[in-house]
Amino acid sequence: MKKVFAFLLFAAVSTLNACKESDPPLPDNVVQFESAEQGMDAATKESTIKLKLSRAVDAATPITIQVAPTGITYGTQFTTTPATTSNTLSLTVPAGSSETSFKLTKADNLFLNGAETIGFTIGSAGSPVLVGTTNKQTVKFTSIVSSGTNLTLDGGTGGASAVNAVFVDLSNNAQNAAKRASWDLGFYSGTDFRVILNNMTGASAIALAKNDLTQVTAADTVGLSLTLGFDPSGLKLVDDVTGDLTKTVIPAISATDADNKVYIINRGTSGATPAKGWVKIRVLRNGTTGYTLQYAGIKEATFKTVSIPKDNAYNFRYVSFDSGALVDVEPAKARWDIVWTGAMYKTSDGTNDIPYYFSDQVLINTLGGVTAAEVTTSTVSYDAYAESNIATTTFKSDRSVIGANWRATTGTVGVKTDRFYVVKDAAGNVYKVKFVSFTTQDGGERGKPKLEYKLVKKV
Question: What InterPro entries does the record point to (predicted)?
Fold first, then answer.
């Protein structure tokens, strides 16, 4: 019996060793830029340049970047963070990470003719990382029209409840991340006077009959419910989920101060947003060019005031109750096409629409003039879609035309491969966009979706 057991043990070990010997080696881990070209127009002061690796590194890995400016001088007209030494940037990919980055900043009051460029070249990478094919990136100090690239969106930490919203400018190969919970109210810069709640956190609000903030106390909140739940009535507490500015919880701000009521705001707890105390607010017009926000905690007898000027370069200007100041959220309206984020939307309970918070929504910049269409591969494949197909593509101004339709979280989990999207930016450039991955089931990482896009028609 002992001989039989020994023989079986030897056979099992031999089999395991054979399996180990036959396991294919991991592919090379390469580092490269997200794109070969990036635009930085006059309105953009700072850009983040990212380098991506095929997979995370086990130990901190050094990367060097050679910097070659043309027509622009380091130190006086632009800088980098970290700073260069002898025209070389030294970066580190932290252990457990698959990316690194640096910042490029223009000097204040800098006037350029648009011909200036900076060439960045990966000089070396610490073993075992190898330098990939997209080892050079040229930054042009003007708007560009990208021919397309691949992007991994930086949702930050949180996975399915990623903390960032990521705004993407297809033509400039650029993405800008902003914390979803970094703002509370958005103030419209268009001709109307509109104020939006933060539907990225599921914020809700309700009007009081009073128009004097100092007369509102905790007693005014007795019996009030700002919990959305899965009830159709919850949709009345949030801004129109399709983005219709005529259907905001806070109506158009009146030129007659007495008509502007006090609102109680629940700052939202959706998408893993920590609960915060309710706030009472009142908004007035500040002449014809802006707003005056009054706000305070429910139990506070006095209130703070913030002035918000309109800026036509932006869809909205944003205010945070935490800082009591304007905060940067979305880029200028001409500098983004789509945003990936978690946000309040709606679903059906079988009879009625009810509020529902969706992760991984992709919204288009309808206020900035962007339109889009969903195309099924049964009509035409992504690779085959060409300029000749544009005439039969129905572009929509529905900001949720992409929405969460591009991925599945039940059944066959992952990116839906039976569809892609066509996006027409405000200038008229047309791009086809397909999502590559977004979760472990399709080879991706939740909170950091990958997408590919290509230019179909250049204006």
Answer: HmuY (IPR025921)
Torsion of CA 426, 429, 434, 440, to 10 degrees: -50
User: What phi and psi values does residue 389 have, to the nearest 5 degrees?
Assistant: -85, -15
Tokens of 318: 């944003």
- How far is Cα 131 from Cα 122, in angstroms, rounded to an integer? 7
Nearest to 32, CA basis, from 122, 106, 166, 163 = 122
The C-alpha atoms of residue 394 and residue 115 are separated, in whole angstroms, by 37
Q: What is the tens place of the pLDDT at every residue in 397-443?
A: 999 999 999 999 999 999 999 999 999 999 999 999 999 999 999 99
Domains and CATH numbers, the chain: 30-143 (2.60.40.2030), 184-328 (no CATH), 334-457 (no CATH)
pLDDT at 10: 44
**Residue 134 CB contacts under 8 Å (≥ 6 apart), including other chains:** 32, 33, 34, 35, 36
Q: Which residues contact 430 (CB under 8 A, 6 or more apart)?
A: 387, 390, 422, 423, 424, 455, 456, 457
Which pTM does this prediction carry? 0.88
Q: Give dist(CA 152, CA 97) in Å, integer.
A: 13
Which residue matches tokens 């707003």? 291
Specify whether the CB–CB gap between 294 and 302 falls below 8 A.
Answer: no
At 141-163, the pLDDT tens digits run 988 999 999 999 999 999 999 99
* Strand-pair partners of 452: 150, 434
> 106, 129, 132, 160: which is closest to 36 by C-alpha?
132
pLDDT tens, 72-108? 999 999 999 999 999 999 999 999 999 999 999 999 9
